[in-house]
Design a protein that fits this description.
Layout: H1 3-24, E1 34-36, H2 43-50, H3 57-61, E2 78-84, E3 87-93, H4 119-127, E4 130-131, H5 133-138, E5 140-145, E6 157-161, E7 170-181, E8 188-201, E9 210-217, E10 226-229, E11 251-256, E12 268-271, E13 284-289, E14 293-296, E15 301-304, E16 308-318, E17 323-330, E18 339-341
Antiparallel strand pairs: 1-2, 2-3, 4-8, 5-6, 5-10, 6-9, 7-8, 7-10, 8-9, 11-12, 11-18, 12-17, 13-16, 13-18, 14-15, 16-17
Length: 343
């Protein structure tokens, strides 16, 4: 290949790539030219105000000298829309209430507006996880309580038996809950771990029976409740919503927190796809509802209409075979067994 052909090829590639970017970022109609950030705003909400596909928000904020870190914008800041090389960009004027110096940010970072409403999922993460069958079967368990009575308050003693890993002192007490099963393959994906409380090790874990003290309790501890090392699950305040890089196929919402019949915005759902399928924290998926089966009066037979896009979900906790996601948008009520696909 000669240099002229190579240059032409590179030029064509750059034009295609540039056109893809420009086409990917599509503004909503009647977007504001300026916007003053308010307390309670989220970056997702602001991006959704401007973009038809808000998970493409990095294209709106990128290459911006005033917003070097879009996670650190504050109530009172003024955002204004400009066009750079034919593409929309958001720029910012710092609000009068936020004072910065070259070496120190005076406003606490916790005042910065978040990417998503973290308070909706923070408490959920502390009390929910999905445990696979192997981990469940190998977990230690409660074999007895002090004086053989049922437990109801912190400070009570319980006795555990089974596998207590070396160096682990704090344990979560949980009870196996709902079994999550893939709707197509019938594969067991894991069990809901129902939060019962916490306990700390009192005696050596080399003994046949290990003594623990209950430090937190949500309901009465029972014999056979399981004991797993306490996980430090820190909620990342800087989610980066983005589309998955792999195709998500045969994805479904298989359960919803709270057992409600209809699923709406900010509800938390369980997906039948996880780490092994390429899902990561921050991935955005489109929710689709199955198209209706209608009768074709001309052909005199039934025909299945295409699936209808009905919402958006953000994955915020990923396990090997399943995931938790929060519904960010729902055009109408969603239901368990609605499909999830690449947006």
């Amino acid at each position: 290949m000669n240099k002229r052909a190579l240059s032409a090829g590179l030029l064509l590639l750059s034009l295609v790539f540039s056109g893809w970017l420009q086409g990917a970022v599509e503004l909503n109609e009647n977007v504001p030219q300026t916007y003053i950030v308010k307390k309670g705003d989220t970056l997702w909400g602001i991006s959704g105000m401007y973009l038809r596909e808000p998970w493409l928000w990095p294209e709106l904020w990128d290459v911006n000298p005033q917003i070097d870190n879009p996670h650190l914008i504050y109530p009172g800041d003024e955002l204004y829309l400009v066009w750079v090389d034919g593409r929309p960009r958001l720029r910012m004027r710092r609000g009068a209430d936020v004072k910065l110096s070259p070496t120190m940010r005076v406003s606490p970072l916790d005042l910065a507006i978040p990417m998503i409403p973290l308070d909706e999922i923070g408490a959920f993460l502390l009390q929910h996880r999905i445990v696979d069958a192997q981990a469940l079967n190998s977990a230690a368990y409660v074999v007895a309580g002090a004086q053989k009575h049922l437990l109801s308050v912190p400070g009570d003693t319980i006795y555990g038996r089974g596998n207590f890993p070396d160096g682990e002192r704090a344990y979560a007490i949980f009870r196996p809950g709902e079994a999550y099963v893939d709707p197509l393959t019938a594969e067991l994906l894991g069990y809901q771990a129902q939060d019962i409380g916490n306990a700390r090790l009192l005696s050596s874990n080399t003994q046949e029976v290990t003594e623990l003290e209950v430090t937190r309790i949500t309901e009465e501890v029972r014999i056979t409740d399981r004991l797993l090392p306490l996980e430090e699950r820190i909620l990342d305040a800087t989610f980066h919503p983005r589309a998955p890089q792999v195709a998500i196929e045969d994805g479904f919402m298989i359960a919803v927190d709270g057992g409600v019949n209809q699923i709406a915005a900010l509800d938390i759902v369980v997906l039948n796809k996880g780490r092994r399928d390429g899902l990561e924290v921050g991935h955005v998926l489109a929710v689709y509802q199955a198209g209706e089966l209608v009768f074709d009066q001309v052909a005199q037979d039934n025909v299945q209409l295409p699936d209808v896009r009905a919402g958006l979900a953000l994955v915020f906790d990923v396990f090997e075979k399943a995931s938790y996601a929060i519904i960010l948008k729902a055009s109408h009520p969603l239901q368990v067994m609605d499909k999830v696909k690449n947006p």
